[in-house]
Amino acid sequence: MRPTPPNHTRPIWAEISASRLRDNFHALQAAAGTQVQVLAVVKADAYGHSATECAPILAAAGAQWLGVTSAEEGLAVRASLAILPQGMTAPRILVMCGLWPGEEAGILDRGLTPVVWEPYHLDLLEAEARRRNLPPQSVAVHAEIDTGMARQGVAPGPLLDRLLQRFAPDSPLKLEGVMTHLASTEIGDDPQNQVQMIAFATALQQVAAAGLRPDYVHAGNTSSTDSGYMPQDLPALAASLGAQAMTRAGLALYGYALPLESVEPQNRVSHVHAHTEDFLSPRLSPKLKPVMTWKTRIVSLREVQCGDTIGYNATFVAPVTMRLALLPVGYADGFRRSLSASNTQPGGSVLLHGRRAPIVGRVSMDLTIVDVTAVPQVNIGDEAILLGESNGNRIGADDHARTAGTSAYEILCGISDRVPRIVVP
Ligand SMILES: *Cc1c(COP(=O)(O)O)cnc(C)c1O
């Protein structure tokens, strides 16, 4: 998916640590507990870490399920798993955003498992399966229930009943999984979590009443595992159908988690959680380590005098004599323009020789200027860390997110294809 261009010579790259990815997966599985299986989410090109590099590493670490965005991404991930040792069972691949006309053949060819909720999803798969004379119950799908996020999924009630009718015993389709997605898991004690899980339980009763027995019941994400809110009630729900409980996690695999929040006390529904504070102390995030280290090198150095203007629109004026280093990274690489700094508004920084060097002026398309006045030993060719750790200092996607007014998710998956991902031990 991200072949490193053979002619890549520009000094910018992202190192992907295989051992950290493995350790994070194991930490997630430990936090989820023995009753809950973790589906490793590698969607959006593994949150910018390269799905085709990360998938085989996660599979070798024991992941039995991987989650991808689309059929297209699923096919690339499936192909990447060809390097697994013979005899090792390849993980299943859940296509999390449904399917679109034209994708059904690839899904069946390569054994991808789509999430479905629109009747047309079933029409497409059913028609393709019948065209191939596939036996009953041979094409596995997971149905998503909309329990309150109003994004994907079918609402419990008549719409779900109509969807469930499509899984008659003679249908080539098999309802292998039933899932939902929780909207507010980083707010550990948000009553919405409970409201959604109650709706999910109702939907599962409907599934059972329709005579269907899915093998998997899944919900939750990084934050719900971190807060311990989930998978707390998930195993019991799954067990009520004789199914395996599963939770899906992405961000934690790559070494990040959102800070856990709490609802305002006056908005709490007192009967919802007897022990609210249980859900506010992170049990996973302290164990996580960022998988990506994003690096570049100094390509130019200069000195400016007091009063000299720096960068586009002269948003920064040197208040004193300064030494500046030029880095070959800009917003076309996914290094956010909102990390720019003016004299009145500080921006982001990078690490040079283990010390923070602040950005000065505007981040431009291909280039960024940093202040190295306080790091006198710098030279052309020295490594600069854009995301990562050095000498006890750390700059994370969460730091970029705070400065740029976005989330670690968006920072990570916004790093562009122009930055080759290189797997390191
Ligand atoms: C992205 C996604 C996840 C994983 O979320 P994280 O917060 O990254 O762990 C889980 N489930 C669904 C449906 C998703 O889209």
Automatic annotation (TrEMBL):
Enzyme Commission number, as recorded: 5.1.1.1
Residue intervals passing through the bilayer: none
Protein's pathway: Amino-acid biosynthesis; D-alanine biosynthesis; D-alanine from L-alanine: step 1/1
GO CC terms of this entry: cytosol
Enzyme's top EC category: isomerase
Entries under SMART domains matching the protein: Ala_racemase_C (SM01005)
Cofactors named for this entry: pyridoxal 5'-phosphate
Domain Alanine racemase C-terminal intervals: 291-424
PANTHER family registered for this protein in UniProt: ALANINE RACEMASE (PTHR30511), ALANINE RACEMASE, CATABOLIC-RELATED (PTHR30511:SF0)
Protein name: Alanine racemase
Organism, scientific name: Terriglobus roseus (strain DSM 18391 / NRRL B-41598 / KBS 63)
